[in-house]
Amino acid sequence: MPTAAAQIDGANTSDAAFVGIASPGAPAAAVEVTSLVAYERAFGSADGELRRAVRLFFDNGGTRAFVVGAQGQLSDGLQVLDDIRFSILAIPDAAGLGPVDATALFVQAVALCEQRRAFAVVDPPASFALTDALGWAPTLGSARNAAAYFPRLRLPDGTETAASGAVVGVYARTDRERAVWKAPAGEVVRAVTDVTISLTDGEVATANSASLNVIRRQQGVRVWGARTLSSDPEWRYVNVRRFALFIERSVSDGLRWAAFEPNTETLWTVVRTQVEAFMHTLFRQGALEAVHEEDAYFVRCDRTTMTQDDIDNGRLVVVVGFAPLRPAEFVVVRVG
Questions:
Q1: Which domains does the chain have, with CATH numbers?
Q2: How far is CA 157 from CA 52, 100, 153, 176, 297, in A?
Q3: What is the DSSP letter of 96?
Q4: Mean pLDDT of 264-289
């Protein structure tokens, strides 16, 4: 059994998975790429939603992606991700689907993300106006592991593309330069010239209240929202949900050693000590909303978290509570 001083390391939060339509002959497996050159070496240089999304991912700060070029249905491509460890998922070619097919695909994608402690970035169908997107987003259900972005992006060559590739890159850049607990909003979208639809302040507010994140021209093109599709206030914000997933994955990975240890008080004490040390580090880094550490988090692993059946069947249950930082979505200035 590791000593109480054993360390839990923070899990990776920015490895992305892209599922899209590829040209015939593309690899059947997910391909790891760390640049657009690597992507083109595997999938060719033919232009399309998938290539544009991967390019914008790297242009906006992404560093590693796993790309699946589906030869048939996009849903088939999701199954290829079964053995891939990823944190963020984008399906840029879904923008070419009709509302019903897009809904079905993203419901499947969100279910996969729930299983894998990952997060999906959703593109509404390309033909949608704002009113269409506002009506469509609720059909995806109350998805805490997903966020939708509108509208599409205009590229320097005049073409347009789905926003998900750039948004995933912004996620990765924010994680690296700030932290996963910082809201990926207010950030500049690089390598684009404009959005395809300009929204008024009133329309932005309407979209925000409907959990549809806007990308707008505001001193550059910027991501202007950070809300998940969840109706649960606890999981309203992208950074709060992704931070929770980060904690879950980090603790789960860090406690793998406990799988074959006797499920006793001795084990529970060591587990609590290790998880508390991990949460203490996050508190010192400013990740939690509290002045005093005892108000910032708690860790439980004892008979209050496990039934006798859990103990008899070798199930170790750790409960971690934390007070997350939440974005200041509206800054109100009153001038007399």
A1: 16-239 (3.40.50.11780), 255-322 (no CATH)
A2: 12, 31, 12, 29, 49
A3: G
A4: 97
Tell me, what amino acid is at 38?
Answer: A
Contact 154, 226 (CB under 8 A): no
pLDDT (0 to 100) of residue 5: 61
% of the chain surpassing 70 pLDDT: 98
Confirm if 146 and 140 have CB atoms less than 8 A apart.
yes
Return the residue matching tokens 């008024």. 200
Torsion of CA 75, 60, 248, 257, to 10 degrees: 100
Query: Model confidence over 232-253: pLDDT tens digits?
Result: 999 999 999 999 999 999 999 9
- Size (the chain), residues: 336
End-to-end CA distance of the chain: 64
Tokens of 127: 């033909």
| Residue 318 near residue 301 (C-beta atoms within 8 A) | yes
How confident is the model over 76-108, as pLDDT tens digits? 999 999 999 999 999 999 999 999 999 999 999
What is the C-alpha to C-alpha distance for residues 41 and 271, in angstroms, rounded to an integer? Answer: 45
How far is residue 204's CA from residue 122's CA, in Å, rounded to a whole number?
18
What residues contact residue 230 under an 8 Å CB cut-off, 6+ apart? 142, 143, 144, 211, 236, 241
DSSP state of 256: G
Which pair of structure tokens corresponds to residue 295? 């108000």
